[in-house]
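Dear Dr. K.,

Following up on our conversation at the group meeting, I've run the structure prediction for 4-hydroxy-tetrahydrodipicolinate synthase from Streptomyces sp. 900105755. I'm pasting the input sequence below exactly as I used it, so you can double-check it against your construct before we proceed with anything downstream. Let me know if the numbering doesn't match what you have in your notebook.
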Amino acid sequence: MTNPHGTSRSPRPFGRTLCAMVTPFTGAGALDLDGARRLAAHLVAQGCDGLVLNGTTGESPTTTDAEKAELIGAVRAAVGERVSLVAGVGTADTLHTVDLTLAAEKAGADGVLVVSPYYSRPPQDALEAHFLQVAEASGLPVMLYDIPGRTGTRIEPETLVRLAAHPRIVAVKDCSYDFLGTQKVLARTDLAYYAGCDEHILALYAVGAAGCVSTVANVVPSRVAAILNAFDAGDAARATELQLRAMPLIEAMTAAGLPGTVTSKALLTALGLPAGPPRAPLRPAGREAADGLRAVYEELAAG
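The predicted structure tokens came back this morning:
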């Protein structure tokens, strides 16, 4: 596929079904690299062809730079070259983001996920310069992360169109909640869009997205993959059925008051998979919340 600027790119540069993987910790709160290897292998075996490490769900604000690099190396050793590894490197500091990008490249990542600098709320020209500096810093392809609800700053559609001219800015994780703006960028560029909100997986895929970066895939990876499989097979009705059937779990995990990190770790623990507790300021789900999550999960699993 060739964009208006003449650059040939893959329509799925990082795969199709990506999981925003949690970062497993030990009971004492240390990085659990063995758990990370086991969880990554499980997710891949269940249908994920890409993993996003050190993202929001991976608790990037509370892991050290050294831990981030160790996690990438451990997961790469566990899954080999079978899947894409995208490393979250976004911070509120451009130079720190560049440093993390270089470290991710050295550790074996296939690409980087770069969120808008948060809290400082840079204007669009500064935001554009930030992303370009990161893209120029390494040879890795870049997935921009548009999530204004957390960062306070939208990557405006016109900014995305301009950024698409850079040969290493190839994708967007879309949590903008602006379906019109997203379609405008899809129509004018060949940026590969990935639904970052699980309730939008099918809707965004139907208008040309490359796939998803799913939080819910931590606990139901095969069901997330099945939505996209059905659509690819030409069975839109089945894809719709699967998306709607997953909605109670999507709501419980991402829209019911607790962060996706907390709900994912609660369910993974209940399922006997590596997770451990979240790091402060996040706290583990209480008994009532954990039981409610388990009930919703079991209802989906039984269906």
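Two things stood out to me. The beta strands are 17-20, 50-53, 84-88, 111-115, 142-146, 169-174, 192-195, 211-214. Residues 266 and 291 are 9 Å apart (CA to CA).

Best regards,
J.T.
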